[in-house]
Write a structure and sequence with these properties.
- This protein is an alpha+beta fold.
- Helices cover 27% and strands 31% of the residues.
Length: 196
Amino acid sequence: TRRVVAGLGQSFILLEDEDKVLGTGAIKCVTLAIGMENGMLYANGTICKSDLDEQHWQSAINEAHLLHELKGRPGVLQLALAIEHEDQFSLITEYYNEGDLQKVFEKKIPFSLAAKIRLAADMAQGLLEVHQRNILHRDLKPSNILIEIEEKKARAVIGDFGSACKRDNHLIKKMRTGTLAYMAPEKIHSLPEKDE
């Protein structure tokens, strides 16, 4: 399936066929998109509004706002367009050809020591940019670090800001969020018991 969405002087062809799916998350399906003006590949994270409760819908809107705030910052996934169309909301972002760091681990892609240091520096720069803007990512893990390898050079960015919040947003900060295996110990111990 192909659809065209446009906004802010940009147009994208959304490639929504099953073989174009790059990944799926808790509330988002990520497929390829093509920029009509430049022919470049992008990632399109689509969220179906009717499938979400109000809290998850607000989380998607919040992610768009935070990515917009981080626009132009190094080490952070760059947003090209956030647009609501029909019953869906799309976050169109940069495309990273190797996917996420978890997939890179699974593929056992060999990196030189210099490349590993560069990737670590990219991630540290991204985290610094996020924290300097008083944003808490709250779900930093290998599957939320995106990797691109181009001309034998690798780079990394922090992505998936669906669980992120501003440091001063006490209401959102108290929500149970993130991936247990990657949570800070102090966060795990402060979690309330889950209602059964």
